[in-house]
Each structure stands twice: as C-alpha cells, then as structure tokens.
Amino acid sequence: MTDATTISKNIAAIRQRIRAAETESGRQAGSVKLMAVSKTRSAAEIAAVLTEGVNDIGENYLQEALNKQQELAGEAICWHFIGPIQSNKTRQIAEQFDWVHSVDRLKIARRLSEQRPTDLAPLNICLQVNISNEESKSGFAVETVLADASRIAALPNIRLRGLMAIPTATKDPAAQRASFAAVRTLLAQLQQQLPECPWDTLSMGMSGDMEAAIAEGATIVRIGSDIFGPRQ
Ligand SMILES: *Cc1c(COP(=O)(O)O)cnc(C)c1O
User: Fold this and answer.
1) Which of 82, 104, 137 to mutate to test the pocket of ligand 1 (most atoms within 8 A of CB)?
2) Has this prediction a pTM greater than 0.90?
3) Does ligand 1 come within 6 angstroms of the Cβ of 37?
4) Is the pLDDT of residue 232 over 70?
5) pLDDT digits (tens, 9 = 90+) for 54-73
6) Are 127 and 145 a contacting pair, CB within 8 Å?
7) Mean pLDDT of all residues in 35-64
8) Which of 14, 17, 37, 97 best tests ligand 1's pocket when mutated (most atoms within 8 Å of CB)?
9) Ligand 1 atom 1: the closest Cα is on which residue?
C-alpha cells in the first residue's frame, strides 16, 4: 500500500513531466490527459488519486475492478477498461465502464454495442492495435483495423474515439517514437476513411515511454507504477 503523501508527490511529478513534454513538442498545455492505472492497487489508493484531481481510472481485470467500483460508489470517476477482454465478460464491461481501450476484434465491439444499456451514453471505445506486430500481444493487426473499422463505426451504442497501443518495451527513445508515430499515422488514415467518427483519442504512453508518446500526439497517457510505485 502506497501512502497518500507519496501518491500526491508522484502525481505532481507526473504532471510536471506531462507539462514539459507538451511544451517540448509545441503542444498546448493541458492537451494530454492523465489516467491512473490502478491494477493490483486498493480502493484507498484510488481515493488518494481522486483527492489530487485525477478522475480517470484504468483497470485491467474485471472482477478486481467491480470490487473497487463498489467500494468507491458515489465518487465521480471515469472508469476505463484497459485489459484483455474475454467475450463472456463483455456484458459487465459494457454496463460498468465509460471507456474501453482494449477492443481487439470485431466480435468484441459488436457485443459491447449490443450489451451497452441504452439508458447510458454510448460506450467510448478505442481499438487496440498491435503496432509492433508481436505474436504475444493482443490487438488488431494494422490491415485488420483498416478493414473492420467501418463495421465498428456503424454499431449503434458505441463511439469510436481512437486507437490504443502498447508497443514493445524499449528504453531507446527513437524506437519508442517510431512505434507511436506509426499509431499516429494509422489514426490519420482512419480519420480520412471514416470522417464521421470523432477519432480524437490516442491512448498511448506508460511510465517508461510517456514523453515519446506525447511527442507523437498521445491525448491520454496510462500511468501505473510512476504513481503507485513498482508492482509487487
Ligand atoms: C499496467 C498498464 C499500464 C501502466 O503501466 P506502468 O508502466 O505501470 O505505468 C498502462 N497500460 C496498460 C494496458 C497496462 O496494463
């Protein structure tokens, strides 16, 4: 358990890094949103994040997320699902989250749209792309995104907001930037192909590569360990 004082200091440091990266790349201050990724962390640790004014919370595992959502009921939180999605879990994800960043196949998009309660706003989704083409990583292959996006865009109860990527981890900033640039290019292609969708979201950048992601146009960074400390 990381104490609230540490979390507060860590968030201040992350905000400075975001601000510096925005300035460095000539982007407007405040154009990059901070999501706190709270997998394995407690509801109390999330509460400390909320106190700092960070209300975008990302979770990877459904059951763990549902437990914390119950503990934090009544808090103003924008919940993001960012983990792998099994098709038998889509109903609860469609019911309990505001955003899903890890949509990695057409079938999942269809189920989320079908299962999104119609008294809620459409579910915001990002398509996860396997930008480094790794065997082991989930996400659409680039060609498949281009082929399936129009079908996904036509689904009624979701809003297709953008792309999410987790490139191969590397400490080389040039290699980090090359991967994120490829995601940015793909987003531009989709904007041309389907101008009716907002396409306003590039969900990319984690603790180790956030600056490179911001330089290549990230609109939301997903930060876990640099807020909560290393995962045990
Ligand atoms: C865990 C996780 C993060 C946060 O990673 P850190 O390196 O701890 O900042 C971001 N995105 C996804 C999809 C994750 O699973």
Assistant:
1) 82
2) yes
3) yes
4) no
5) 999 999 999 999 999 999 99
6) yes
7) 98
8) 37
9) 224
The band of 108, judged by pLDDT with boundaries at 50, 70 and 90, is: very high
C-beta of 212 in contact with ligand 1 (< 6 A): no
Q: Specify the pLDDT at position 148.
A: 97
Atom number, ligand 1, closest to the C-alpha of residue 102: 13
CA–centroid distance, 213 to ligand 1, in Å, is: 13
State the SS3 of the chain.
CCCHHHHHHHHHHHHHHHHHHHHHCCCCCCCCEEEEECCCCCHHHHHHHHHCCCCEEEECCHHHHHHHHHHCCCCCCEEEECCCCCHHHHHHHHHHCCEEEEECCHHHHHHHHHHCCCCCCCEEEEEEECCCCCCCCCCECHHHHHHHHHHHHCCCCEEEEEEEECCCCCCCHHHHHHHHHHHHHHHHHHHHHCCCCCCCEEECCCCCCHHHHHHCCCCEEEECHHHHCCCC
Q: Of ligand 1's atoms, which has the minimum distance to the CA of residue 226? A: 9
**How many Å apart are CA 143 and CA 94, to the nearest integer?**
26
In the block, tokens 């407690």 appear at 42
Q: What is the CA radius of gyration of the chain?
A: 17
In this predicted structure, what is the pLDDT of residue 135?
78
Per-residue pLDDT reduced to its tens digit, 178-223:
999 999 999 999 999 999 999 999 999 999 999 999 999 999 999 9
